[in-house]
Structure formats: structure tokens, C-alpha cells
Write a structure and sequence with these properties.
- The strands form 2 sheets. Strands 1, 2, 4, 7, 8 and 9 form a 6-stranded antiparallel β-sheet that branches.
- This protein starts with a strand and ends with a strand.
- The chain contains no helices and 9 strands.
- The chain has a single domain, classed as Jelly Rolls (Sandwich), CATH 2.60.120.10.
- It is mostly beta strands and 121 residues long.
């Protein structure tokens, strides 16, 4: 996969995405003392923009035993080949489509999530 963590939101612009997108969805979220489901999206890229708090993003090489929840979405599987990335205020993370991941929050984390749907080929 090619997950990218950008620590300084004011750094020079960087190319994150080289594929066309069909649509964009914006969500905001607050997580408190919890772990997200493990997940992978075949058709959606995610961009996390952390606005406050701290957490850990787990990125995996693969996910086994996941439930197919439809439309290219897989959840609640076992992550294999995990790398951890700290999340804190100002962190921006690009998670490419197909990259298994989850978030762990020991206290509180607030972020904006941009979901970019890949253009059908």
C-alpha cells in the first residue's frame, strides 16, 4: 500500500492522489476511548485530518477473515503485517483504497474524514 502521513499541514503541497475520483464525501467524527472496526474499502480512498486529540492508526499489509459488507467494503478481519502511525492535532493521513486499517483512541480524537470514490474504469 502507499499510506502517507503528513505531519505539518502547512508544508509545501504534495501530490497524494494520481487517479481520478468520481465523488467526495466529507464526514466529521469524534472517537472516545475506543477502537474502530478493522476495515478496507475497494473503491474509496480516505483522508484523515486530525483536529484535536491523539490516537494510533494501524495500517496493515493484509486482512484475513473479514466480513464482506457489500460494495467492496470489508470489516472486522484480522490485520496482518501491521505498522502503527501516531495521530495528533495537525496530522493528515492519506489511506489508499484497498489498504486495511483501524484506529485506536485511548482518550479522545476529533477528525475530518474525506472519502474519495475512485472513478470507475
Amino acid at each position: 500500500m502507499d499510506l502517507k502521513v503528513l505531519r505539518d499541514i502547512y508544508s509545501p503541497p504534495r501530490e497524494l492522489l494520481t487517479t481520478d475520483v468520481e465523488s467526495v464525501m466529507v464526514k466529521t467524527g469524534v472517537m472516545e476511548k475506543q477502537e474502530s472496526d478493522t476495515e478496507s474499502h475497494e473503491f474509496w480512498h480516505d483522508i484523515y485530518i486530525v483536529t484535536s486529540g491523539e490516537g494510533v492508526l494501524l495500517e496493515a499489509d493484509s486482512m484475513h477473515g473479514a466480513e464482506d459488507t457489500g460494495e467492496g467494503e470489508k470489516r472486522r478481519g484480522q490485520l496482518k503485517g501491521v505498522k502503527e502511525h501516531d495521530l495528533k492535532e495537525g496530522t493528515i493521513v492519506f489511506i489508499p483504497a484497498g489498504c486495511p486499517h483501524m484506529v485506536k483512541v485511548p482518550d479522545r480524537l476529533t477528525m475530518v474524514v474525506l472519502k474519495l470514490k475512485k472513478k470507475a474504469v
